[in-house]
Amino acid sequence: MLRIWRSEMERIWNRKSTLLLYIAYILIVVVIICSHKVTGTKVLRFGEGTVAVNNLNLPWLMMSEVALFLITAILPILYVDQLSGDLYSGAYRLYMLRPYRRFQFWLAKLLALSASTGIFMGTSLLIGVLTGWLFFPHSSTFFKYGSSDASPPSDAILYILVFYLVLTLVCFKSRELL
């Protein structure tokens, strides 16, 4: 099963369309971070005010905008391209000649797409954290979304990780809705 998954990962990441989507995704992340750097603030979506962007809140503020592109455009293109590309190119028939069950092939494909989604999310988390610490003002307090109570920086780490975990699960679920 591990060999099938590894083969699927290679197949996904050897396609030019995947690499172009990945580069476009990184560019979107960088542009949104640059816009936060230029403005220094972020207007919250539902009229809840404006927040000053700092090193502790940049990763989730940035991802709240990137998620729109990720869930509505990038991931559906990636999933549909991978699933229909194998059927259209005839590669799926070649897979069936191998001594594995159809269920194993589809499970490996879905796990490889899930891992690719994790790579996209992990990349944005890494870029957000690094640019936050390098280029944005450092803060000693952290305000959670919708809260006016200040939290210590240690809460920011857990908050960001939970935020990205929930968003990753939403991305996995959006894949099932395609």
Layout of helices and strands:
Layout: H1 2-13, H2 16-39, E1 41-43, E2 50-52, H3 58-89, H4 91-96, H5 102-135, E3 142-143, E4 150-151, H6 153-176
Antiparallel strand pairs: 1-2, 3-4
How would you describe the overall organization of this protein?
The protein starts with a helix and ends with a helix. The chain has six helices and four strands; from the N terminus they run H-H-E-E-H-H-H-E-E-H. The strands form two sheets. A two-stranded antiparallel sheet has the order 1-2. The chain has 178 residues and is mainly alpha-helical. The protein has one domain (1-175). The chain crosses the membrane at residues 20-38, 58-80, 106-136, 156-172.
Structure, briefly:
By secondary structure, the protein is mainly alpha-helical. It has one domain (1-175). The protein has helices at 2-13, 16-39, 58-89, 91-96, 102-135, 153-176; strands spanning 41-43, 50-52, 142-143, 150-151.
